Amino acid sequence: MKKKDWGLLAGVLVISIIISVVLANVLFSSKGYIKQEVEVVDPISADFPVNEVKPKYFNKDSVNPKQLIHIGDPNEHPFADENKQ
Q1: Which residue of 16, 25, 55, 79 has the lowest C-beta tally within 10 Å?
Q2: Can you give the pTM of this predicted structure?
Q3: φ, ψ for residue 50 (rounded to 5)?
Q4: Which one-letter DSSP state was computed for residue 7?
Q5: What span, in angstroms and rounded, lies between the C-alpha atoms of 52 and 55?
Q6: Is the dihedral of CA 8, 11, 13, 15 positive or negative?
Q7: H or E element: which one contains 3?
Q8: Where does residue 23 rank: exposed (0-12), middle (13-18), buried (19+ CB within 10 A)?
Q9: Tens-place pLDDT, residues 14-72
């Protein structure tokens, strides 16, 4: 390549870099800072009252979803050997 070709190549590279940076900023940049408001949620607590039902969510005729449910007899030793009882 001749010395003149290197200058032309450098000029084309500089111009293409400038054009690509400008186009990238126009196409992919955000239009300022976009803010979105979110609902504030009450923190989760370790307290779980069994008998308290909030009237906000359940009416007086609804079933209490916090009732303890027992299915079958409780197994005191779930990993005990069945032959050694």
Answers
A1: 79
A2: 0.35
A3: -75, -40
A4: H
A5: 9
A6: negative
A7: helix 3-28
A8: exposed
A9: 999 999 999 988 888 776 677 778 899 888 777 766 666 677 777 777 776 767 777 87
